[in-house]
Amino acid sequence: MTTNNRNYRVWTDDEDDKLVEALLNMTNTGKFKSDNGFRTGYLPHLEACLKEALPESGILGKPHIESRIKTLKRDWAAFYDMLNTSGFGYDTVKHSVTASTDVWNSYIATHKHGGKWKNKTLPRYEDLCVIFGKDRAQGKKAKTVIEVEEEVNMVEEEHQRNEDFDEISHNVGTDSSLQVEETSSVRSKKRKRARQVDPLVRSFSDAVVLFADRLKETSAELSEDIKFELDIKKKTLMMPEELSKMTSLSQLEKFQAIEKIKDDQIRVMTFWSLGEEEREAWIRFLLSS
């Protein structure tokens, strides 16, 4: 369902469900998702998913999905902050926040937007925890809703900078190759009249060659580091699906296990190095420590 404003859309429950399912699948598989947010290309991917699930909806990546994700993350963050505040509880049946009247009054006095959650539910809260949970520091001071909105904007700006950097890198790489080839051919001719060459020009040409060589070495080193980081992130994102197979663990224990492992590379690697039967025993050992 849409309004006359192309940049605004009133989402139905079914559309919200399909979007959250697509986001959850993207998170669990590691596709277009990283610890800092979403990777370049995530909007076209989600648009295609919703077009397949809801062919008549007309939902676009920009501005519809992009705007809705901002709202979902902002609502989840507000909900999450309350549940991490003393006095609040969670109704798993109604998917709502619970608290005494005194706790509500005290919270609303310092969080003017918190009042709307007194009689409102967030049906996909658990799924949103999986989707957005890694974007929010655990065990630290909770961020305000305004800070979360600023964080979302910063991530989007970073995505744009990455796209710009890719384009600039391509241009720089092409220009550098041409400069190196031209420098190599011209240098042989200039050796015959070296005394007439401006030393500044010669120094600049040599600097270009050295820069190109160093760039190749640095790129190779970074490539290995990036591959390792991506492997760790991929293994981390695959954990919720693997933990879901451990039927003896409660949902809370699974969440606790993820929180204990996700930011520790050694624990991530240990988890995947164990056999399937050993993993569950190791998880219980980790939770008891």
UniProtKB/TrEMBL annotation:
It comes from the Eukaryota. Residues 171-183 have a biased composition (Polar residues). PANTHER family: MYB/SANT-LIKE DNA-BINDING DOMAIN PROTEIN-RELATED, MYB_SANT-LIKE DOMAIN-CONTAINING PROTEIN. Residues 11-107 form the Myb/SANT-like domain. It holds the Pfam family Myb_DNA-bind_3. Residues 169-192 are annotated as: Disordered. This is Myb/SANT-like domain-containing protein.
